[in-house]
Structure formats: C-alpha cells, structure tokens
Amino acid sequence: MQAEDRRFALRNLKLIAVMAAGMVSLYAILDHFAYPEYQALFASLRWTCAAIIMVLLVLVRSRMGKRFFKFFTVILPLVPAFFVSITIFVTQDPASIYYAGLSLCIVAIGFLFHWTYREAFAVSGLVLIFYLIACSPAIANGLTAKDGAGLFSNLVFLVTTGVVVVAGSFAHQQLRVEEFRGRERLRQQKIVLRQNARKLQVTLDELRKTEGRLIQSGKMASLGQLSAGVIHEIGNPLNHSNQALFLLRRRLRQFPEDDMIREAVEDIQDSVDRMKEIVRELREFSHKRSEVLGEFPLKDSIDVAVRMLGKEIDDHVVSVEVRVDPAVQVRGVKNQLAQVFINLLHNAVQAMGQFETGRRNQILVSLTKTDDRVEVSVHDNGPGIPDGIRSEIFDPFFTTKDAGEGTGLGLSICLRIIEAHRGTIQVFSDGATYTEFRVVLPTPRDPSENAETIEAAAHHGPSLPIPPDTSSRPTDPLLHENPVS
Predict the structure, then answer these.
(1) Which of 30, 68, 268, 385 has the fewest CB atoms within 10 Å of its CB?
(2) Which phi and psi angles does 419 have, rounded to 5°?
(3) Helix (H, G, I), strand (E, B) or coil at 226
C-alpha cells in the first residue's frame, strides 16, 4: 500500500507544486486592492514562496525525496500557509481575508494527497498555530470588537476546515485500506487460480496420455475377445486348403490335365488370400501406426467388424444384415471406426445371447446419407437398455457385466473416437425389445486436413459430454420398413 501511495504522491506532486506556485503568484493582484501599501513586500514574499515550492519539487524527484515522499506531502501545503501567515503578521489584521488562503492550503492539497488522519491533523494544527502566531501582535495590542469578531469567525472556520479534512482523511484511509485488502485478496486468488490452472493442465496432460493408453488397451481387450473368432476364420480356410491339396495330390498322379486340378488350385489360392486378408486386418487393427487419415468407404470398416466377430456371431446364432451403400465415403481413420463398430456389434451380440431362446436374433446395420452427414444405425432386437443406466453407458469403466468379464471402456472409447471425427453417437432403447446406436459422421469436405488432426483429437481430446437420454425418439424409418424386433 505504501508503494501505491508513493506512486500516487509522486505523480501528483508536480501538478500540485505548479498549481500552488502559480496561484501564489497570480493572487498578487489581491495585494493591490486589499493592501496597496504592502504591495512590493508581499510580491517579494510571493515570489519567494513560489521559488521554495519549485525547489521542493526538484528535491522530491531525487532518490532521497522518493524515499521520504511523505515529508514532502506535509511540508508542501505548510510553505504557502507560512507565507500567508507572514502577510497577516505584517498587516496585524486578525480579520484579514487572507485567512482563506490558509483554508485553501488545507482543503485543496489535503484532498489531492492520500493523507492519513494523523498527517491531516498535524497540518491542520500547524496552520492554526501559524494563524494564531500571526495574530499575536494584534491580540497583544488589544482588539476592537470588530477585529475580535473577525478573529473568532476565522478561527471557527479554520478549526471546522481542519476537522472536516481530518475526518475525511480518516474515512478515506479506511476505504482505501479496505479496497487495498480486497485487491490483495483478489491478487492472491488470481495467483492461486493460476497455480491451480497449471496443476489442472498437468493433470489434463496426464489424463490425455492415459486416455491414449486406454484406447490402445481397449483394442487389445477387443483382440482378446475376438481371438476365438479369428481362429475360426483362419481354421475353416485351412481345412478347405488341406482337402483341396489332398485331392490335388491324388489327381496329379492320375490325370495331369484334369480341370478339377485347376479348380482345386483356385480354391487353395482363394483360401490363402482370405487368410492373408484376415491376418492383414488383424495386424492393422492392433498396430497404432496404421492409423492414417484418409477417405474410404464406410462399409469397409463395418465389414472388418463383421468378419472379426464372425465366430461369435455364429455361436450366438445372430443374423447380421448390412444395408450400407459401398459408394458412401467418409474421411477419418478406418482402423478407429472399425473399432467403434466392433464394440457396438459385440455388445449387441452378447446382449442377445442373454435373451430368451426360441427366437430369431437380428442386427441391422443401415445407413442414411444427406448432403453434409452420414448416419449409421446399429439396431438389434435384444433386451434393450433400462432407463436407469442409459445415461451412464458412455462413462469410462461403467459396465453391467460381472467382475472380470468387461472393463467398461468399450463405449467410452467409441464416444471419444466418434467425437474426434467431429461426429456424434446416441443410444435409443425402450428397455425391453430393442437397442439402437446412431453414429453420425460429417461427409468429407476438407481435403487439406492432415492425419494428426483426428489422431491427436482421438487420443488427447478434451473430456466429452454424455449424450442425452432421448429414448422417446422414433427409430430409423428404414427399420419400420423391414423391422427386426
């Protein structure tokens, strides 16, 4: 607070000094009318007063002056008050109108400086003493009734002025102290907020790194769940290849030019190609470096998901129908979108596996395209999602499975990936007969976007909101044309 007072005082001292010196010199015109006999003496006193004020101004700008600036804020109004008292002393006129200059010194400078009530009391008391000393010769020589009344009136006004200035300085000081404390509290709060913001940024950075690891962990968990399906998909082509090779060996010995040999060779080639495709997709899905941004048919990601879940789909006797136009393309990371559809299809298959038997389990994957977006619907006729948990299914680590059967990260990762692709994902269900997930993605519009944009957003993006519970909305019109529930 003292530093603030110093800045304020040093800023105003020049203005006050120039104003005081100018007023003292300008009011010499009063001497011509009030005391023409002392005009020359008073002029010299005024110029001396103005010179002293300017000397004080020079001194206060020095290093010592800046250190003891409070002294100058007190001494500056006393200089003109002292010279005004000299003029009253010379004239021996206690009722002199020059007493108004004493009041002006107290009031004008008192409110231009940040005086404390002690400083205001000291200045007011010294000015009053100056006035009494100036009037002492006249008092000693005896006062007329008129002069006594003038002295008393001037004393009352000077005392009243001093009281007002002291009271005002006290109130002003209290307000300034409260204001300073408030600003200091605000400054401390800002410091704490900045520290908390830095801590929060560090925490967010750690969460983003952890989130990237969780996405990769989710892929590995999906791979573990899909291992049986992969073995099934690879085993069937291998068996087919072995049978074809056995036939080929027999026929080669008997009919070297037989057409069946050529067909068997083609079967072997088809089976080997199929195994190579499955292994390639599995490798791409498990390696993070394969996540490259580009435009591709959305059906490719859906087909990858259906093929990887083939064994589990067959085991649960689920019919999966894909109504997606192969010509519809999106811009994104094929590997990540495949992970989304693997999670959605896997959840639907497992949910219907817990439903009653003797019914036809169906999943319909359909697509609706507009000018600026693509909407994919994954609809199943399973038991649905109860109202009580529908708003929580996208929370990380939320799961309804038994301990050890699920991590609760699947849908959370799906939400993050879709949001990273500037899309949305919502769930609709009546809690009894169906569940539908709707994935909305923008159509390709910005070919200049680079791979780091989506990949960084998917792994390091901000926390995303839970989609609203909108189970009362109707299902896709396509499902009403060919219902699966």
Answers:
(1) 68
(2) -65, -35
(3) helix
Q: Which residue has the higher pLDDT, 401 or 459?
A: 401
Q: Provide the angle, in degrees to the nearest 10, between the axes of the packed helices 298-308 and 334-353.
A: 40
* Number of Cβ within a 10 Å radius of residue 353: 15
In-domain check, residue 268: no
- Residue 255 makes CB contacts below 8 A (sequence gap 6+) with 261
Residue 430 has pLDDT above 80, yes or no: yes
Identify whether residues 360 and 471 lie together within a single domain: yes
Single out the residue in 148, 176, 191 at which a domain terminates. Answer: 191
Element (H, E) at 374: strand 373-380
Residue 229 inside a domain? The answer is: no
Predicted confidence (pLDDT) at residue 465 exceeds the cutoff of 90: no
Comparing 138 with 396, which gets the higher pLDDT? 138
Whether 120 and 169 have beta carbons less than 8 Å apart is answered as: yes
From residue 207, give the alpha-carbon distance in Å to each of 119, 197, 210: 59, 15, 5
Pull the structure tokens for residue 228: 């049986």
In this structure, what token pair is assigned to residue 35?
Answer: 């005391």
The Cα-based distances of 18 to 44, 127, 448 in angstroms read 18, 21, 66
Q: Tens digits of per-residue pLDDT, 132-159?
A: 998 888 888 887 888 888 888 888 888 8
Token readout for 164 is 């007002």
Instruction: Output b/e per residue, 268-298; b: 16+ Cβ within 10 A.
Output: beebeebbeebeebbebbeeeeebebeebbb
Beta bridge partners, 297, equal 329
* Percentage of the residues of the chain whose pLDDT score is greater than 90: 11
Structural domain for 331, as ranges: 293-481
**Which element (helix H / strand E) includes 378?**
strand 373-380
